[in-house]
Amino acid sequence: MALPRITSPHTTGSNRTQRVMLQVLLAAAPGAFVLCWLYGFGTLINLLWASAVALGCEAAMLKLRGRPVQFFLRDGSALVTAVLLALALPPYAPWWLTLIATAFAIVFGKQLYGGLGQNPFNPAMVGYVVALVSFPMAMSTWPQAQFVGPWDALQQILGITSLPDGWSHATALDALQHNHSLTMEELRSSNPAFGGFGGAGAEWVNLAFLAGGLYLLYRKLFTWHAPVGMLAALAVLSLLCWNGNGSDSNGSPLFHLLSGATMLGAFFIVTDPVSGATSNRGRLIFGAGVGILIYLIRTWGGYPDGVAFAVLLMNLAAPTIDYYTRPRTYGHRKADRGFKIGE
Predict the structure, then answer these.
(1) Mean of the per-residue pLDDT values for the chain?
(2) Distance (Å, rounded) from C-alpha 330 to C-alpha 301?
(3) For 8-164, where are the E strands, in sequence order?
(4) What is the average pLDDT across 181-194?
(5) Is residue 169 within a helix (H) or strand (E), and if so which, with residue range?
(6) What is the pLDDT of residues 212-225, one digit of tens each?
(7) Bridge partners of 199?
(8) Rounded CA gap, 209 and 34, in Å?
(9) Is 128 exposed, middle or buried (0-12, 13-18, 19+ CB in 10 A)?
(10) Rg for the chain (alpha carbons), in Å?
(11) Most distant CA pair in the chain: distance in Å?
């Protein structure tokens, strides 16, 4: 009798890693397009530069580890890490900042743990946090929405010229976090960082990433549990702590959902199958934990947007969540959690 040959579902067929990564890149395209439309060619240059750095670092590490370079480069995982990281960085982040963040994400966040499937932390968020902690001013300053041509954008990224005076400003989340005297209406009218519902420009970027995330859900690349858990927890907590228009207001639920990297985190970061929880119930808890931590960091923490820190903290908790949410084995009344002493 001939036995059937069964291969890994991530190497052949419609679920192979390369196809999944290409779908993620396609879903991120609307957000990248809106960022380029709002801020010009800075985002596109960052995407190309981060991709080149990621592929170079990936190839170098694979060579040092004695692994087949072309085989692993073709899976697209390094490219996805670079794209997600570049989309989270300010549009005119200096070239060296993108280099440091991307190299750290690939080398320390991925390859030193053994490569794809072995990393306990989301590599893109590892690189982002390293850049944020090391260079907080450069990471928290965004330009006003204004189109910039490719040559001017390249000069600003290379440091040949700097952003015009009065063009760069703190984000809406940063302005709200440090506000102690102005009402929300006064803050919106006096600060160009605020848009109609969230941050100026950020609300459109978040809607674009929401559209891309819904596409990934439609393609069934992940389940709804982690994104819904994160967004629901963030919305409920911000609603409970919302104080309307007062000067001590922490922002409405709609403001938090459409500001910062909320939708990017919900559909492209917490859905990482490697560093997140594995069961559906575990993913729901994982996402809810991320949403709660995002609000706590945004409101009372030292950084305006807490997506990256929240994800990394919940990455630490993912093994424990998996342990207590392990699905019941067929034929058993409850999940088998291993043998106890004396059994």
Answers:
(1) 86
(2) 44
(3) 141-143
(4) 73
(5) strand 168-170
(6) 999 999 999 999 99
(7) 194
(8) 9
(9) buried
(10) 21
(11) 80
